[in-house]
Amino acid sequence: MPTEPSTERDRVFRFGPFELSEREGELRKSGVRIKLQEQPFRVLIELAANSGKLVSREDLRQKLWPVDTFVDFDVGLNSAIRKLRQALNDDADNPRYIETLAKRGYKFVAPVADSAAAPQPISNVSPAGASGSLPTDGTKSAASEEIQRTPQRWYWVLAACVLALVSYGALVAWRRANTPPPLATERQITANPREAPITAAVISPDGKYVAYSDTTGVYVRHIDTGETRPLPLPSGFDAIPTSWFPDGTHLLLSSEETLYGFGPPSKSGIPSLWKVSLLGGSPQRLVDNASGGAVSPDGSKIAFLRSDAMGSAEIWVMANDGSNLQHVAQAAVPEGSTRAGDTINRVFESVFLPEIAWSPDGKRLAFVKRFEAASPGPSEDKHSLETVELLGGQPKVLKTSTHLLNVVTWATDGRLLFGYRNDPASERVDTGIWSLRVNQESGEPEGKEVQLSTGAGRLCGLSVSRDGKRLLLWRENLSPTVFLTEIDAETHSLRRPRRLTLDENSNIVEDWTPDSQAVLFFSNRNGTYKIFRQGIDQVVPEVLVEGHGLFQPRVSPNGKEILYLAGNNSQTPAQPVSVMAVPLASGPSRVVLQMPSIETFQCLRNPSKLCLLSTTERVYSFDPEDGKLQPFYDLRAPSVFNWMASPDGEQVALVYYGSKHKITFLTLPNNGRREVELPESLGIGIDWMPDSRGVLLTSWSTNGAPVVIAVEPDGQHRVLLEGDRAVQYLFAIPSPDGRYAALQVVTRENNVLMVENF
Predict the structure, then answer these.
(1) Cα dihedral across residues 260, 263, 265, 266: positive or negative
(2) Are 219 and 212 in contact (CB under 8 A)?
(3) At what angle are helices 73-88 and 57-64 packed, to 10 degrees?
(4) pLDDT tens track for 449-493
(5) What are phi and psi of 631, to 5 degrees?
(6) pLDDT one-digit tens code per residue, 357-380
(7) How many distinct structural domains can be found in the chain?
(8) Residues 6 or more apart from 345 whose CB is under 8 A from it?
(9) Which of 364, 430, 509, 633 has its CA 20 to 30 A from that of 243?
(10) Is 439:447 a contact under the CB 8 Å cutoff?
(11) This prediction's pTM
């Protein structure tokens, strides 16, 4: 008897940049084959085929692990899932493709396009009666009929070939249309060392020159030849270039700005815009209380930004000589928020406009709005990309995300170019350049966003030549690093620091172990923030707590546990933040307490059993054993920027907003209050000495060098350490035995790069 024809069906699943072919047994990413073993491949087929549905572990065992195989199923499945996540570059904590449902199974969460080829019959028998004998009734034999049908078969073979060619052409066209173009290459233009990082850079209208500034001055560099010359400016005139005038011989400069919170405060704190000629002559002041200036394409107008102490920001436009000022738009502080709160740790939410750009026709402005909130953890500010008509009106919001960067420029072909995080699932800040075509009349987007390039470090500036052929950018690579320094037993000064953490990722030190032999810090060196411990004589740290978004490790009052924060989310501040505890000698973590809007916390030392935490509303004390909260001493005060309680819990040191040179000490038992005035400008770090007799402050000297100062409540103070101007000291944390200090140092390596053919 003839057998039933069988069918082969090729299921092809497409998700993100991946294509999964069941018949070919291949997983490809953007056309490139990814090596995958058989069992993980079969698991992926099963998950993709049931996209959006729970696939239980038992279902996978029955379908993919036959009963006659001698395999540890749990180990095999876990290994397969792990290999799949590696192949897909997926994260179990923040899944984009495979979500684990605890004790139940897995769910494929990405959208999947499922296509299959038509089934092809495969026969296992010959046609009935296909012999060479002639019939006895005189009719034509089957063989002769087969010969007569031969021309018709060739016709169908030819038609099938034509159809295959057409289908192949359509497939090639579809792949070309749906395959992202290759990313452009970023070519480095400058090679500044860490001692002189780039602070701003803009390309000339003709694309031949870059005007840039670093910590030594302002320069103009020929991009192709590398010839560089300084821009002659008056002594003491510190400025950065923000835009070129269309004639290519004049620059717009902004002076007296503190960029990105790095470096000492400016002399006056009030920025101003200046016009200067490359041919010589003194700079011409155009307007005060203005920054981020951008010259219009025809050179007749200048758009700029203004801000106030409460965090509002405004867009203004003026004539190119500084006259005829016109208000365009304003970004106010969100309702219910304030920069200067009435409690010691209010959420200092504010809105800033860090960047603006002209449309090619000069009728519209694009800008980035930054929503900023004080947070102790590695959370990101939220940004929105918007456009507004020059005559005013309601801005058009194009995109809002915590992964946007505060950089934007508008190319002559209508594309808006902006910065976006390379991997939103990662807690690194590496960013790429993206484009979005925007209608200049309506301000509305046209088409989809397209990634143009990728790179290491934070994108800090974009500018494009008039012909749209060259795109200039500069990147900032901050390196928060932990240094160790010994405290001289006789002079109490700090000796020359030595570097402890040796990688270039963020390493934020928070505390010491009770024996003073190791520091505790959190770092994103493995992609997400985790808790680490590193001995003072070690070169490689050990991971204490794995996870995502973990920060602020602190030793408990009894010295037996490490407390830390987990779950901070700047996008959903109402989401509870957890105070966790893990044994110092290793072991599982436990939840101490949960509540929303925890901003920071610290622990006192024996004989006290308490830790302190601050929220957006008040300060509480709690016992890490039971997690019960109690109101702490009433620290309500306007505009408190930073605070720290002494290890014995009897004093509090605090700094107010606007107090550049003053620190206040509160004595809690008797409500005593003393203010200490310093010649140096205060930084952000306050840490008490172990004996509670005074604090270590990070600051800047009068010449702009970073310093560490010891300050006592009775007014005594002196500089213990002075560093190089190329670095910043964030804080200095003394060890429990008073012999060492862990110094948080930030360096940056910034340079200018260029993209062509984008």
Answers:
(1) negative
(2) yes
(3) 100
(4) 999 999 888 899 999 999 999 999 999 888 899 999 999 988 889
(5) -60, 135
(6) 999 999 999 999 887 655 444 445
(7) 4
(8) 374, 599, 600, 614, 615, 616, 618, 619, 640, 643
(9) 430
(10) no
(11) 0.66
Q: Burial code of 139-166, b = ≥16 C-beta within 10 A, e = fewer?
A: eeebeeeeeeeeeeeeeeeeeeeeeeee
Q: In the prediction, which pLDDT does 146 show?
A: 43
Q: Which two tokens stand for residue 215?
A: 């910590």
Same domain, 627 and 648: no
The β-bridge partners of 371 are 351, 382
Looking up tokens 């296992």, which residue turns up? 124
Separation CA 182–CA 185 (nearest Å): 9
Dist. CA 125–CA 104, nearest whole Å: 47
Q: Are 251 and 276 in contact (CB under 8 A)?
A: yes
Token code pair at residue 387: 């456009």
Say how far apart CA 549 and CA 555 lie, in whole Å: 19
Tokens of 60: 């996978």
Statement to judge: residues 233 and 345 lie in one domain: yes
CA distance 657 to 639: 5
Between CA 235 and CA 303, with CA 266 as vertex, the angle to 5 degrees is 90
Of 644, 638, 589, 592, the residue nearest 614 (C-alpha): 644
- Residue 423's CB is within 10 A of a number of other CB atoms, namely 15
Q: Are residues 426 and 552 in the same domain?
A: no
- 100 and 221 in a single domain? The answer is no
Q: What share of the chain is helix, strand, coil (3-state, %, to 5)?
A: 10, 45, 45
- Strands (E) located in 411-490: 415-421, 431-437, 450-453, 458-464, 470-486
d(CA 182, CA 452): 8
Q: What is the DSSP annotation of 115-170?
A: EEPPP--B--SPPTT--SPPPTTSPPPHHHHHHHHHHHHHHHHHHHHHHHHHHHHH
State the CATH number of the domain containing residue 720: 2.120.10.30
What CA–CA distance (Å, rounded) separates 680 from 611? 31
Helix (H, G, I), strand (E, B) or coil at 737: coil
Distances, alpha carbon 348 to alpha carbons 369, 598, 621, in Å: 16, 13, 22
Q: Which helix (H) or strand (E) holds 388?
A: strand 382-389
Nearest 5°: the CA angle 418, 422, 423 is 135
Q: Rounded CA gap, 683 and 475, in Å?
A: 24
* CA-closest candidate to residue 42, choices 70, 22, 69: 22
The residue with tokens 């052929």 is 469
- Alpha carbon separation from 391 to 317, 357, 362, 449 (Å, rounded): 10, 15, 11, 27
The answer to whether the bond into 354 is cis (omega within 30° of 0) is no
- Domain interval for residue 268: 186-477+751-756
Residues 645 and 623 in one domain: no
Counting as low any pLDDT under 50, the low residues of the chain are 1-8, 68-70, 117-150, 257-263, 265-268, 336-348, 375-379
